[in-house]
Amino acid sequence: MTMTTQAPAVRQEHLAHVVFISAAAALGGFLFGYDSAVINGAVDGIKGHFGVGAGVTGLIVSAALLGSALGAAIAGKLADLKGRLLVMRLAAVLFVISSFGAMFPFADWELAFWRIISGIAIGMASMVSPAYIAEVAPPAYRGRLASFQQLAIVLGIAISQLVNFAIAALAGGNTRNHLVGLEAWQWMLGVAAIPAAMYLIFALIIPESPRYLVEDGKLDKARKVLAEVEGEHIDLDARVREIQSVLAAEHKPRLRDIRGRAAGLLPIVWVGIGLSVLQQFVGINVIFYYSASLWHSVGISQTNSLLISLSTSIINIVGTFIAIAFVDKIGRKPLALIGSIGMTISLATMAWAFSAAHKISSTEVRLPHAEGLVALFTAHTYVLFFALSWGVVVWVMLGEIFPNKIRAAAMSVAVAAQWIANWLVTVTFPNLSEWSLSGAYIGYSIFAALSVLFVVRFLHETKGKKLEEMG
Predict the structure, then answer these.
(1) Lower CB density within 10 Å: C or N end of the chain?
(2) Which of left, alpha, beta for 218 (phi over 0: left; psi -120 to 50: alpha)?
(3) pLDDT tens digit string along 335-352?
């Protein structure tokens, strides 16, 4: 009873510090959003500069996603061996290097190489940031603080679209035009080095995860961090013992720890993989990677296409704030269910609108005015429903559904599966859209409908539970 009455005062006293370190860690999510979406504005410029078609364009755009799967796969083991902060710092350095590399490519394959390197950084950051935030956040605030990851992602997406729009405008509205010696699309890719440098600075000053410190035997440092994030008035020795009791009989997490009888993996790992794969198979990143090119292809000018992409990113931010407001109030499962239903309806409507498209050349189609307005409106409602649900819920739940023993290893597998699914959607969309825009969106709507069934059948509420209670 005593602990229950003290907890709120303790949390309020140290909330500002927890918010700061969570926001600093979430800068990895900002880079994730920025670096993965910045290609949206550069697609037409890259196609024109290197003279490549839909297939090669899809490979260049999706190359980062293959790197992301690799980065997510190696980050878990590295985070357990050397700590969460080392992974953040390494990701930041790779972000900086790859940004400059992508800014000065001499061939399409070299640009794809630098996209893979940036993808490795994205994958590492996407795995370690939510895990770190979940491990430093008090249970009552964990949902909202874990939501910082998705908020940072959508802010990164929005800022990248704003920067793309500004650079294109300065270059006269065409991404192939030159600006201070370089084509506009090159500046779009290179500017990512600025937030990457900021991420590195913050990763050098925030504290290590207390759970990693306990696991590594650095108990005094763990007590110090726990006092900073949960308050000096809690029983620090009891909190350390609580974490130790979960870790005491456990060895360092290994990938073989997540093996089980259910098709080779533990059931909870399959739930994490299902969350990750469905989040991507609803086609959300088609909007953020190709929307400028998509709207341009259906008759909207390049500058206005970038402006539409920016407005979509703003809707994404609004939806994310809605999710942050409600994820700890109504819970993860209800939000996911609301989003799944909304996405299904929006995607099906988009598929209907695109069915009216007619080709006017081998590379361009046109939509009638009424269907074009419907497509624009439902694209925005789709993004809104995704942002207020699966955009946030997936990252929150991946950070908390796994038991301590397997958290890092299971996170690596789940996030790697997410990037592979993202790659499959991204690499296939250019060819699918040339075959049938409507058919592509019918496919995404089917997966959105499947996500409704997945939430009802497999998702269990985690609101308000301690990480040590997960099992």
Answers:
(1) N
(2) beta
(3) 999 999 999 999 999 899
